[in-house]
């Protein structure tokens, strides 16, 4: 994935959001925006096209599954890669909810980088040859 693309981090726990932003910078992304909940994320997505969205799953007032549903219904962001972050050990539900991948807290920069590379490789496999 092109690390010059902007990234949106969504987490209702400000400290965790800041940690994820720092990890994104550690893996090479310089353009990282942070918002605190789903409605704020949707407002930000109306203003700007992002190359990656990293979102917490358990948020209020809109959880990660609801946020993904709204993002996937927006033609501008329907194919934007989304990584869900969760503290739940069994996060398979976030994967089936439309996320491209998930990470379980706690995780390190190399885990995040590996997940981004995995998603990027899967997307490249879906691209038509040509």
Q: Overview of this structure, please?
A:
42% of the residues lie in helices and 17% in strands. The protein has a single domain, classed as Rossmann fold (3-Layer(aba) Sandwich), CATH 3.40.50. A 5-stranded parallel beta sheet has the order 2-1-3-4-5. By secondary structure, the chain is α/β, with parallel strands linked by helices. Helix 2 packs parallel to helix 3.
CATH topology: Rossmann fold
Rg calc: 13 Å
Count of helical regions: 5
Indicate the mean pLDDT: 90
Global morphology? globular
Taken in chain order, the helices and strands follow as EHEHEHEHEH
CATH class: Alpha Beta
Range of helix content: 40-55%
How far is it from the N-terminal to the C-terminal residue, by CA?
19 Å
Q: Looking across the biggest beta sheet, what order are the strands in?
A: 2-1-3-4-5
Major beta sheet summary = 5 strands, parallel
Q: How many strands appear in the DSSP assignment?
A: 5
For the record, the CATH architecture stands as 3-Layer(aba) Sandwich
Concise overview:
30% of the residues are buried. The chain has five helices and five strands; from the N terminus they run βαβαβαβαβα.
Features:
130 residues, alpha/beta, Rossmann fold, five-stranded parallel sheet, 5 strands, 42% helix
Fold topology:
Blueprint lengths: L6 E4 L3 H13 L5 E4 L2 H10 L4 E5 L7 H9 L9 E5 L5 H5 L4 E4 L4 H18 L4
Parallel strand pairs: 1-2, 1-3, 3-4, 4-5
Helix pairs in contact: 2-3
């Amino acid at each position: 994935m092109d690390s010059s693309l902007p990234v949106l981090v969504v987490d209702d726990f400000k400290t965790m959001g800041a940690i994820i932003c720092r990890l994104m910078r550690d893996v090479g992304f310089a353009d990282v925006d942070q918002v605190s909940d789903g409605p704020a994320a949707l407002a930000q997505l109306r203003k700007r096209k992002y190359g990656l969205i990293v979102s917490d799953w358990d948020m209020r007032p809109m959880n990660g599954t609801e946020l993904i549903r709204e993002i996937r219904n927006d033609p501008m962001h329907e194919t934007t890669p989304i990584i869900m972050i969760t503290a739940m050990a069994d996060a398979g539900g976030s994967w089936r909810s439309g996320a491209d991948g998930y990470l379980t807290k706690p995780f390190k920069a190399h885990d995040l980088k590996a997940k981004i590379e995995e998603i990027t490789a899967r997307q490249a496999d879906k691209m038509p040859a040509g």
